[in-house]
Write a structure and sequence with these properties.
By secondary structure, the protein is mainly beta. The protein contains three helices and nine strands. The protein has one domain: Lipocalin (Beta Barrel). An eight-stranded antiparallel β-barrel has the order 2-3-4-5-6-7-8-9.
Amino acid sequence: MNRDNMFRVVSSRRFFAMAAIAVLGMLFAAGGAEAGGGCAVPNATGTAPAIPFVSPQAAGQQEDGDSHGSSDIVGLWHLNYTAETESGAPIFPPVPFAFLESFKMWHADGTEFENAFLPPVGGNICVGVWKSLGKGTVKLHHIGLMFGADGSVSNIFTVDEKDTVSEDCKTYTGHFDFKLWPPSYDAVGVGTPIAEVTGKTAGTRITVD
């Protein structure tokens, strides 16, 4: 769906689907400490050891003895989501289809931020929290808001992901589960969602150089 169609009718089916995942919960930022940096190492003069900051994820990586750990996903990524199944309200095109494109930041403190390639009017920013599952794999829970033409919250959506970073740390792949809920936070996760889409994630790291 092109940008003109999305602006044409905010409540249109296509916009509804894309804006939902857009708000998804987005989230990307660079940074993070290596697991091995969690140990205090005395210097040659025997003075007090330097103790570098270690994020909760990096600390967990060290305890698990995981050499390819959670810190690998920290940073800025270009993401593409491909839908493979859908159910519920008939608001999505036939599968498979390109569900969303975004910039995503994974932070070392276990939070995440995403900025979708969608018009801000319907909601294109979302946030999440994540944890390491070991061996370069992470689990993410993402949440975001969708807005109607009058500016009020029309829906809340959640996205749950499991992603694994490649050995060279330049890409990651995984699966996502998008669920659309009523506009009340108390209704999120209760009963059957209005609509649900599952599919694959594909990320490419964005670097300084």
